[in-house]
Amino acid sequence: MLTVVGLGPGSEDYLTLKAITVLKRADIVLTPSRYLNVVRKYAGNSDIVLLDPRNVRGQVLELAREYPDSNVVVVSSGDPLFSGIGKTVLDLGIECEIVPGISSIQLACAKVRTSWDNMIFLSLHEREHISHLNNVLVKALKRNIKIGILTSPDYPPHYVISLAKTYANMYRSSVRAFVCSNLSLENEQVLALDNIDSVDIVRADWNSVLILEPCIDKHRLLYEPTLL
Ligand SMILES: C[S@@+](CC[C@H](N)C(=O)[O-])C[C@H]1O[C@@H](n2cnc3c(N)ncnc32)[C@H](O)[C@@H]1O
């Protein structure tokens, strides 16, 4: 049986009891290196295989085929079904159980005390999300919708903020931003930017959740009602 388990944003504080139970029962664990300490702690007697980001599909397929009668556990950061390895396993058509974890987006929203029930989510690790980035920014600015973005090495926070700045000027919006980096880890950093227009350089790690909160210039509505 194969189980995909989310281990949360990083710190053990955000592990669920269910995740610990799954790790304790594992025969084999496939894990990203950043969760190695947690995996060793709770699944110390299992065989531990490090995930190779360039061969995720191959590794998962091999374990599923070679060990159909073992408890094979595949570790995901955050929640497996938000830009995590859960989608890869489902796409491969492998029979599995998925155990949710606390997503970095949940922790970011909690940190900055904003709700995520009216937010658009994007992950800049996903090709199709990257191609939607411009459209989503424009739509969100026009309609005053919040966006939660998982940034990546190729699309770090400062890249998205400078893009958002350009559109904010175009649509006469002001945009508040929160850059939540390395949440729950020793080097956690949360930057609150009241208006991205007045910020020149944003120094933040790519391992961040960026929350953008547009705020339309009310006077604009007098002239451009059709935008809404
Ligand atoms: C491949 S995605 C995995 C997301 C994960 N499945 C989740 O639900 O959080 C990796 C991205 O998640 C975000 N992320 C993961 N852990 C984080 C943390 N501790 N602090 C801030 N962002 C984090 C970053 O945007 C990172 O680039």
Tell me briefly what this model is.
Helix content is 35%, strand content 24%. The protein is of the alpha/beta class and 228 residues long.
Can you characterise this structure?
With 228 residues, the chain is α/β, with parallel strands linked by helices. It folds into 2 domains: 2-102, Tetrapyrrole methylase, N-terminal domain (Cobalt-precorrin-4 Transmethylase, domain 1), CATH 3.40.1010; 105-227, 2-Layer Sandwich (Methyltransferase, Cobalt-precorrin-4 Transmethylase, Domain 2), CATH 3.30.950.10. Helix content is 35%, strand content 24%. It is built from 8 helices and 10 strands. S-adenosylmethionine binds at residues 9-10, 76-79, 82-84, 103-104, 123, 125, 150-152, 180-185, 207-209.
Looking at CATH, the homologous superfamily of the largest domain is: Tetrapyrrole methylase, C-terminal domain
Tally of alpha and pi helices: 8
Roughly how much helix do the residues carry, as a percent range? 25-40%
Overall average residue pLDDT: 93
State Rg: 20 Å
Low-confidence blocks of residues:
none
Any idea how many domains? Answer: 2
Approximate strand percentage: 15-25%
Main sheet overview: 5 strands, parallel
Give the termini separation. Answer: 50 Å
State the CATH class of the largest domain: Alpha Beta
The hetero compounds bound to this protein are: S-adenosylmethionine
Shape: elongated
The CATH architecture term of the largest domain is 2-Layer Sandwich
**Care to count the β-strands?**
10
Spell out the helices and strands N to C.
EHEHEHEHEHEHEHEEEH
Strand ordering within the main sheet: 3-2-4-1-5
At CATH level 3, the topology of the largest domain is Methyltransferase, Cobalt-precorrin-4 Transmethylase, Domain 2
Helical/strand content category:
alpha/beta
